[in-house]
Write a structure and sequence with these properties.
Helix content: under 10%
Order of helices and strands: EEEEEEEEEEE
Structural class: mainly beta
Strand content: over 45%
Length: about 120
């Protein structure tokens, strides 16, 4: 059974930092491209950061470049999102996504989300 479990969210003041974790199980984590998305109040879900399974190449939404860092630890089946210099507009539910291809079929899985609130 595929599972993605996010943790690390919470309430933080503007300028603060949080590190989100997403623990994966039930599939070959090292073969999966991993992403973090977020959905703010009244907004659509949007891609925040991506890390590939091969070469660990990364991409970021423009609004988080230089502040957020995505990384992965294949030995722990976990992907991280280090968030620094947080702003109120970063307030959202953050979701982890896994995409993998097996025998020519692409599978996508989502976690349940973790709330991040940036407020003074």
């Amino acid at each position: 059974q595929v599972q993605l479990v996010e943790s690390g969210g919470g309430l933080v003041q503007p300028g603060g930092s949080l590190r989100l974790s997403c623990a994966a199980s039930g599939f070959s984590f090292s073969s999966a491209d991993m992403s973090w998305y977020r959905q703010g109040p009244g907004k659509e879900r949007e891609l925040v950061a991506f890390i590939s399974s091969v070469g660990y190449s990364t991409n970021y939404q423009d609004s988080v470049k230089g502040r957020f860092t995505i990384s992965r630890d294949n030995s722990k089946n976990t992907v991280y999102l280090q968030m620094n210099s947080l702003k109120p507009e970063d307030t959202a539910v953050y979701y982890c996504k896994a995409r993998r291809t097996t025998w020519g079929q692409t599978y996508t899985s989502w976690g349940q989300g973790t709330q991040v609130t940036v407020s003074s």
